Prior knowledge:
The protein is an alpha+beta fold. It has one domain. It is 33% helix and 26% strand. It has a 4-stranded antiparallel sheet, with helices on one face. The longest helix is centred in the last third of the chain and has 32 residues, at 198-229. The model is unreliable at 1-26 and 116-122 (pLDDT under 50). Keywords: Membrane, Transmembrane, Transmembrane helix. The chain crosses the membrane at residues 200-220.
Amino acid sequence: MYELRVFVWLFVGLGWIGAPGVVNAALPSLESWTKVSADGQFVLVMISPLSAEEEFQYTEDNVEEIKRIRTAYTQSGLYRNDGSASPLWTIPFQDVTHDVFVGPQGKYLMLAHDGGSVWSGHYGHLVTFYSNGNEMASYSDVTLFSLLELALPRVARSENDNLAFDPQKMTFTVFGAQGVRVVFDVTNGQVIRHVSPVPMYLSVMILLLISQVAVGWFLLCRQRPTLGSS
């Protein structure tokens, strides 16, 4: 049993060493931005916490777009995409690096990051769920994945993550590397399924360890008569 513990912790340690580090994580953007929902019925609007003058100085590339946004909208939140200037509900400012998913009737909102979010200042954030502008749940790598999943390089987090929202089943799925799949219930933000390769990896490691111990014991037993006769 002691040998098994040593083997597992050695494996975890090697995983941490091999895991990609956080390098040059930049600060989030403070620019105003908008995102139209997939069905075209709603638009998520984010108004910079900076004043208009400060924002114009902050960015020189999107001044006209920022002027258009600030002229049409005054608050961060979800609007009907019909020119309406009154939000259905409001939320605090979130930067443009988020992937946006809006549920039917505009009630539910998911703001997510894929595995390539290192440069946005949100390294580790997976997804935050909202209902009518109220945050229900938020997940990061460390709150969602186990120690072993985080220790294995490119298992819990990958730069090729796929994010999928199913408006029919009202589920949101994060597809990671090596078979990782986490499925959430959009209506409450809770995890309903977590598929991971870690149990399989542990089973293989245990079988390998048992086989090595068995082979070693067999060879030792074969050598004992020879040692005794000499």
